[in-house]
Amino acid sequence: LVLLDRLSHASLIDGALLSGARFRRYAHADAQAAERALAERSRDVAVIATDGVFSMDGDIAPLAQLARAAEAHDAWLIVDDAHGLGVLGPSGRGSLERLGLSCGDAPVLVGTLGKAFGTFGAFVAGSCELIEFLLQKARPYIYTTALPQPVAAATRKALDIAQHEPWRRERLLALTERFRAAASHAKVPLAASGTPIQPVMLGDSHTALLAQQELFNAGFWVVAIRPPTVPPGAARLRVTLSAAHTEAQVDGLVEQLSRVCARVQVACE
Asked: Which of 8, 9, 83, 193 is catalytic?
């Protein structure tokens, strides 16, 4: 049995389907619902699979509660931390570190190299037994091509930078807090996110597209996210902050967002 958060990334859904296992989805970030599903199952082997940071909402999964539920019901917790690794936690170890957890709380950690580390590819981290099993049995891995050596070398360098230059994370956190404070003051309708993914909730797809174009005309590239990527009526602008952004750019974006909200008649309350 595979249990997935309802807002899990499509890759987790594809993986669950590819496994051939039964799978169910529980309400977003509802650890109690996940635990109930574990308690109701038969003697099946079970895993809970979740994003660490949800890519379209920017919120962090309740990993501590999910880890306790998995332990209590003899299940595994799989965390796809594509948007947490390199960004969250004092040393950049991601959502688990941000929440005071360790790899022992999530026996399987999935990450991508194409976000904070700036290259491409992905990895699975786990026990030696798990990795050996995947090497022998994971068909998508077995029948694909390895990363080119220059990409692997660039990734190793990126990992080194992430470990030894924490000022980038500190700056990104400061920019995120600056953006949220200014946007809140300007009554921009933000979702509840404490990560660099900052959704501006607009609701209507047409409104989101108009806002995207208005911002583009003003010199800001902010993508409109519409159904089916997000639920109906939940279209949004997805602001993604970077340590390379400046305070002036953040302030300018908030100013333009405030104007755009007024022009497209969004209820910013």
From this structure: 83
Is 164 in the active site? no
Note if 157 is an active site residue. Answer: no
> pTM above the 0.90 mark?
yes
Q: Are residues 132 and 213 in the same domain?
A: no
- Options 8, 9, 95, 115, the catalytic residue: 115
pLDDT along the chain (269 residues), means of 10: 96 92 95 96 89 98 98 96 96 96 95 96 96 94 93 97 95 98 96 97 94 96 96 96 97 96 64
CATH number at residue 254: 3.90.1150.10
Which residue among 55, 95, 193, 205 is the active-site one? 55
Q: Are residues 35 and 120 both part of a single domain?
A: yes
Catalytic, 115? Answer yes
Please name the residues in contact with 91: beta carbons below 8 A apart, sequence gap of 6 or more.
97, 163, 166
| 69 lies in the same domain as 35 | yes
Could you list the residue range(s) of the whole structural domain that residue 213 is in? 167-263
